[in-house]
Amino acid sequence: MITLRNVEKFYEAGYGRTYVLRRINLEIREGEFVTIMGPSGAGKSTLLSIVGMLDASWTGEFEFAGHQVHRMKPKERVELNKKYIGFVFQSYHLIDNLTVYENLDIPLSYRNVKSAERQAIVCDSLDRFHIVGKRDLYPSQLSGGQQQLVAVARAVIASPKLILADEPTGNLHSSQGKEIMELFKKLNDEGTTIIQVTHSEANAAYGNRIVNLADGWIV
Fold first, then answer.
1. How far is Cα 185 from Cα 183, in angstroms, rounded to an integer?
2. CB-side exposure of 35: number of CA atoms within 13 Å?
3. Which of 99, 115, 163, 198 lies in disulfide reach of 203, CB 3.0 to 4.6 Å?
């Protein structure tokens, strides 16, 4: 499903280049549950952003589901992202001026789901994540843990082929975190490919492979 060849990311500084990722060669098959681990500053979130097509300033080759991403125009990458990928961000990235309900509705609108069907799916998702009472609230009215639940719900609501999760349980109580990881495991068992970034050994145990990063290199 995903092949990265010699992918690198760097910043130009006055004294030369500062590399964030170095010669990343990685293959992830459809249906895998892969965990990316490593110390802070290792490049984990950057790698996730590249795979999620949110970061375009890198070099190398990237194939995704038969598409040559490194040859695609920005607009084409955006369409690919909307069609295939659900993303759980470490800092939530909910849309501030939309309610919880509206935030959940957006991924479905990208996939041209009919209005009545969207309504049913959103209501089901609100129930599934125990956030029915929050449906008309805005992100600023929610706690960090509640925003995290909404972010996870938004990532999975449209049944994406690939879920990218950056510290998905970081702001949740342990029981909520376990519930989210069990959900990811269930989705993975049903065929969804998942890549998570985590420092948690317990969360890593839900996956079937660990990729370790250090100083931008796979080790």
1. 5
2. 20
3. 198
- Measured CA to CA, the distance from residue 116 to residue 170 in angstroms comes to 34
Residues β-bridged to residue 68: 63
The three-state secondary structure class of 111 is coil
pTM of structure: 0.94
Q: Which DSSP symbol is given to 139?
A: G
Over range 126-145, report the average pLDDT: 95
∠ CA(92), CA(160), CA(90), 5° rounding? 20
CB 151, CB 131: distance < 8 Å = no
Per DSSP, the three-state class of 219 is coil
Give the tokens for residue 1: 């499903």
C-alpha to C-alpha distances, 44 to 27, 37, 131, nearest whole angstrom = 16, 7, 30
CATH superfamily of 33-45+74-218: P-loop containing nucleotide triphosphate hydrolases (3.40.50.300)
